[in-house]
Amino acid sequence: MWTDELTVGEDASAAAWIAARLSGEFGAVTLTVPSGFPAYVRICHPATDAGGAFVGWTEVARETGRQAHALMQWHALVGSSDPFNFTGSLWPGGDPQTGNLVPDVLGPLCEVLATYTTGPAHCFFCLWDGWGWVDGSGALGKIVLRRGEHAVPPAEMQAPVPPAFSAHELSRERVRLPGRDYLLLQGPLSAATKIGHRGSPTWFLPQSPNLFWPADRAWCAASEIDFDSTLLGGSTELIQAILDTPTFDAWAVGPEDSFASDADKINTVAAGDDSEES
């Protein structure tokens, strides 16, 4: 593997508790993060402005004339009826990444999380096994473009992707949750920002863990591959600490709140009524 701070679990038993605690309708918070925590929070993945700088969703809402709120959906926030391609978007910058919390936010989040567990040195990380760089299935160019990154030399864009894990590591038992299979990694919480694809000695594509928690299960966080937000369950004190930290574009949510594409009931856009036509 690319870092000696993490190892692939011999089996998936450390994640056995999660499946039984996933519940709710399609898009529900607790269908992504286990139920049973006292409080939950949503951390919106940052967008970028026209110059490439990270911006929060509240700033985007000001620019697009929409309203920021806990259950806002990106496509509705930018005035598009298309939840996948954002056709007619009012926002001139870049869209937030799905399935990935950037290191600029993940790093500070882990610093907060470390103070709300008895064992920050002993954590578990689920990594979706469908990322093309995990087993080397795909060209680097396709992987990079799908993630919205472009800072790769052209010669490397077409290079085959070497597997990030050995054949022995890839053969180990997967964590199997509804619709998703994951490799289970373990190591210190501080290693969360070191997961990703190293395309060359000088180029690294970071990938946040798609699900992670400490051994004492004091909290659990998830960056579901189809969501542009990270959801986290934990104590009321932890959730309040996250809400109080300006680094995070964070919103308190309930366990049954939905993040389905039609969940934003405030910034509604009629089908076919995209901004370029209105």
Question: What labels would you give this structure?
Answer:
single chain, 278 residues, alpha+beta, 2 domains, nine-stranded antiparallel beta sheet, two-stranded antiparallel ribbon, 9 helices, 20% helix, 20% strand, globular
Can you walk me through this structure?
Helices cover 20% and strands 20% of the residues. It has 278 residues and is α+β, with helices and mostly antiparallel strands. It folds into two domains: 7-45 and 97-253, no CATH class; 59-95, no CATH class. Strands 1, 2, 5, 6, 7, 10, 11, 12 and 13 form a nine-stranded antiparallel sheet that branches. Strands 3-4 form a two-stranded antiparallel ribbon. 37% of the residues are buried.
Summing up helix and strand content along with how strands pair, one would put the structural category as: alpha+beta
Strand content: 15-25%
Q: What Rg do the Cα atoms give? A: 19 Å
Number of structurally distinct domains: 2
Query: Span between N and C termini?
Result: 51 Å
Helix content: 10-25%
Q: Uncertain regions: pLDDT < 50 for 5+ in a row?
A: none
Summarize the structure.
The chain has 278 residues and is of the alpha+beta class. It has nine helices and 13 strands.
Which SSEs are present, and which pair or pack?
Layout: E1 7-8, H1 16-19, E2 39-44, E3 47-48, E4 54-55, H2 57-64, H3 74-77, H4 103-114, E5 123-128, H5 132-135, H6 140-146, H7 154-157, H8 167-170, E6 175-177, E7 180-187, E8 196-200, E9 203-206, E10 211-214, E11 220-222, E12 229-234, H9 236-243, E13 250-253
